[in-house]
Amino acid sequence: MSAVIEARSLGKRAGRATLLDGVGLTVAAGEMVAIIGPNGAGKSTLLRLLSGDLRPSEGEVRLNQRDISSFTPRELAARRAMLSQHINVTFPFTVEEIVLMGAGDRSMRDAGPLVEAALDEVGLSHFRARQLPTLSGGEQQRTHFARVLVQLACGEAAHGPGLLLLDEPTSSLDLRHQIDLVEAARRRAAGGTAVIAILHDLNLAIRFADRLVVLNGGKLAADGPRADVVTRETIRDIFEIDAVVHRGDDGVPYVLPQSMRAVMPHLSPTGRGRIA
Amino acid sequence: MSVTIGTDTRSPRRHAGTGRRSASVAIPLLLAALAATAIVALTVGAAGIPLSRLPTALGLAGNTTTDAVTARDQLVLWSIRIPRIAATAMVGGLLAAAGAIMQGLFRNPLADPALVGVSSGGALAAASAIVFTDSRFGEAFRFLQTELLPLAAFAGSLATTAILYGISSRAGRTSIAIFLLAGVAITAIANAGIGLLVFIADDRQLRDITFWLLGSMSGATWTKAAVLAPILIIGLAACTLIARGLDLLVLGEADAFHGGVDVERLKRISIVMVSAMTGVAVSVSGVIGFVGIVVPHLLRLIIGPAHRLLLPASVLLGAILMVGADTLARTIVAPAEMPIGILTAAVGAPVFLGILLRQRGLTVL
């Protein structure tokens, strides 16, 4: 399978701080990758580098075998779509108008069916005429997801399978809509899209992705199939918690975090994961 | 925090579905309203021209006999009233569109060239030009005063906008709070400069400078209308270029970029346009506040915030409001004339407060 996106020894510095250091990552068409890691691990930085929004301090990002900085914003938008974490819309745009923004210069007459389908997929058809700032956080997040789906569909119609980047897409969603969103992303991957998502919910990440990329302290800590990556040891090393890892009937692991004190009462508060 | 999501807890006003249907008729309606306002403005004034005499005076009626009354009407219309109405309409259009663009650029309905000192910067530069060309050092440039004033106002506006953007933007992000506060500071600096010029100016210069500060259309001529027209036409053409980008910019700079917008280019075009439009308007009319806030705000409530329609509609409604305000300004204290800036501020400031209150309401929601 050909690589849709390829990052080579990627580094990003901001002042004296190193946000990302020597990260390499290749994602092929139809692949679903979840990026996990503790706060400040460099997950969002990595995603913004992969989106072309940030320029790396070292290394390079190649999209469809071409240096990502050589694309114009418009060319880039036709090949990768990205859902950011926090979007605050100040003007009274309606849900439909926001979703239509994903369709570029196309009017509602041309992009109507795509907008309809995306609104339907996120379950917001009945809110199409509502002004976005009046919706709840989760509903707003789903609206932006619909917009990103429309952008992806428009780009893929012209250039074939694209790249979908999701930065904590489920952070404001209830359980049902978390599953809905993840399944929508899975459908895109089944159609050939390369999907990369940052997820904080470990179990959702495991369910969602065949492959997990673990970042810690700006470095790549692990990258592989979920069964290999999700072990009690990895979780202890990366998240500094003790967890029980079970395997479901289908062999897919799931993680049950334990209270550190309950499991290891001898662990000092400053011990930070060291087992005495 | 508990959040109730049931639709019944929200006011029906927020179901904005029906309001947007007016979009397709907004431009024709606004054009008709502008025409009606202009006709009223043509008939009212120190020398009243009743509606019945208007077609003859404009040369539209078949009557070719030119009596004394018609001759006087024609003189009043063609050399005073029509250029003034044309210039006033264009100033209103430019100010309103500049406000709408600046609000889009900063994703804030309260951004306005006059409020954040862009107009003051232009006025300071214009006042400097007045005093300089009148001084011993600037004597050589005195014959250029007419040409120099709009250029100075434009340069002052451009410099102010660039400084504002530089202060409030860091690493591709623009802080709205810092932007508005910096605007207050820059307005104060510009006003200090204007104060200094007022202090050193002689009586004649003082009158000219006061004109900039209060705003007035009384100096409108065909020449000034001719300066405004190309900027307005270029501005309208550029509006179609940046409308979609400004729409996407509401998502934030990073997400506008993700959506395919060349954000840096959009910002550059917008800043130059706001400066040019404000600068040239200020050079003709002086500082006129609140048109840039009130017009786009009213329109967003009626036709929605999409810039493809908002920008041209702002030009039209800005023109209507300014022609109406100017007609009022030259009639309510006739034969004297009230500075139009006083009128727009008296109407605009309460609307501005209304927006603040409404925003507070939204935050509480």
From TrEMBL, chain A:
Q: What's in the keyword line of the UniProt record? A: ATP-binding, Nucleotide-binding, Translocase, Transport
Q: Which GO terms describe its molecular function?
A: ATP binding; ATP hydrolysis activity
Which SMART domains does this one have?
AAA
> One Pfam family for this entry, by name?
ABC_tran
All copies of the ABC transporter domain together span 5-242
Alphabetized InterPro entries for the sequence: AAA+_ATPase, ABC_transporter-like_ATP-bd, P-loop_NTPase
Provide the function of this protein.
Involved in beta-(1-->2)glucan export. Transmembrane domains (TMD) form a pore in the inner membrane and the ATP-binding domain (NBD) is responsible for energy generation.
PANTHER family given in the database record: HEMIN IMPORT ATP-BINDING PROTEIN HMUV (PTHR42794)
Q: Give the protein name, as stated in the record.
A: Heme ABC transporter ATP-binding protein
Source organism (scientific name): Bradyrhizobium cajani
Automatic annotation (TrEMBL), chain B:
InterPro entries in the record: ABC_BtuC-like (IPR037294), ABC_transptr_permease_BtuC (IPR000522)
Q: Where in the cell is it found?
A: Cell membrane
Entry's CDD domains?
Answer: TM_ABC_iron-siderophores_like
Q: Where are the transmembrane segments?
A: 23-49, 82-102, 114-133, 148-167, 179-201, 221-243, 274-303, 309-328, 340-357
Keyword Transmembrane helix tagged = yes
Instruction: Give UniProt keywords alphabetically.
Output: Cell membrane, Membrane, Transmembrane, Transmembrane helix, Transport
Protease as a keyword of this entry, yes or no, is no
Query: Which top-level group of life is the source organism from?
Result: Bacteria
The UniProt family comment states: Belongs to the binding-protein-dependent transport system permease family. FecCD subfamily.
Q: What is this protein called?
A: Iron chelate uptake ABC transporter family permease subunit
Q: Which organism is it from?
A: Bradyrhizobium cajani
Output the lineage of the source organism.
Bacteria, Pseudomonadati, Pseudomonadota, Alphaproteobacteria, Hyphomicrobiales
